[in-house]
Design goal:
The strands form 2 sheets. An 8-stranded mixed beta sheet has the order 4-1-5-10-6-9-7-8, sandwiched between helices. The protein has about 240 residues and is of the alpha/beta class. The chain has 8 helices and 10 strands. It has 2 domains: about 120 residues, D-Maltodextrin-Binding Protein, domain 2, CATH 3.40.190; about 90 residues, Periplasmic binding protein-like II (D-Maltodextrin-Binding Protein, domain 2, 3-Layer(aba) Sandwich), CATH 3.40.190. Helix 2 crosses helix 7.
Length: about 240
């Protein structure tokens, strides 16, 4: 082998060895993303799908959980960073490059069990204050439609805020809301009223990420759906 071929081979080795790991960030959003409070280990439907996706793609990655506002800003501002589980909405479309969908998420209105008011549609909610949390897609949804909202720092704060009369009704993801109520022992005091929307949640990546990588990840995710791997992961959390 001549010196030029050796140089090319060494360059290839160096480039492969210096491949940048993807920074994957998320939040506590059961059952899609679940953070163990003792160990910090992250699991959940979306998390396991993303981890399997990274394995199939041969991608090095880091995984960490943050408050949602910080997580989405990291994905918008930092190269090689993706955030999940992110609802894909028109207002967010150009902020990221999208891999998915990972899961579907029903949006539900919750009320105090002793509240005699029983709205049945979004239009019925017009006179009331809706509890949501900062930078969440549901908060953006109600804001764009002109509703009066009360924004918490974290969705887990909202059940007690509603019980204390800070707002009238709570809007959140169905499974997340039920899990929060279970953890806080409030399942008999707060009840679901109606589902008002369903969204698809994605892995949302920094816009500077190579489109070829995004395309490959989307292709591999479709293969996971076809071969039953995605369904097997979902079944573990039912």
């Amino acid at each position: 082998m001549n010196s030029s071929r050796i140089s090319v081979a060494m360059l290839a080795i160096l480039l492969c060895g210096s491949a940048q790991a993807l920074n994957l960030v998320t939040e506590e959003y059961p059952p899609f993303n679940i953070v163990n409070p003792k160990t910090g280990e992250i699991s959940g439907i979306s998390t396991e799908k993303v981890m399997e996706l990274m394995h199939r793609a041969g991608e090095k990655y880091t995984l960490a959980a943050y408050p949602w506002a910080r997580a989405i800003q990291m994905a918008q501002n930092n190269p090689d960073t993706c955030v999940f589980s992110t609802s894909r909405t028109p207002g967010r479309e150009t902020l990221y490059k999208w891999v998915g969908p990972l899961v579907k998420n029903n949006w539900v209105i919750f009320a105090r069990a002793d509240d005699s008011r029983r709205p049945k549609t979004l239009e019925d909610l017009r006179p009331y204050v809706i509890g949501t949390y900062r930078n969440d897609a549901i908060a953006e949804y109600f804001s764009l439609k002109g509703y009066n909202t009360d924004l918490a720092s974290a969705d887990a704060d909202n059940p007690r805020k509603m019980l204390y009369g800070r707002f009238d009704f709570w809007a959140t993801g169905e499974l997340l809301g039920l899990d929060i109520l279970r953890q806080q022992g409030l399942g008999k005091l707060i009840v679901p009223l109606f589902t008002f929307n369903q969204t698809e949640m994605y892995l949302a990546c920094n816009t500077g990420m190579e489109q070829a990588k995004i395309d490959r990840l989307n292709h591999l995710l479709k293969e996971m759906d076809k071969d039953g791997s995605s369904a097997a992961i979902e079944k573990k959390y039912k």
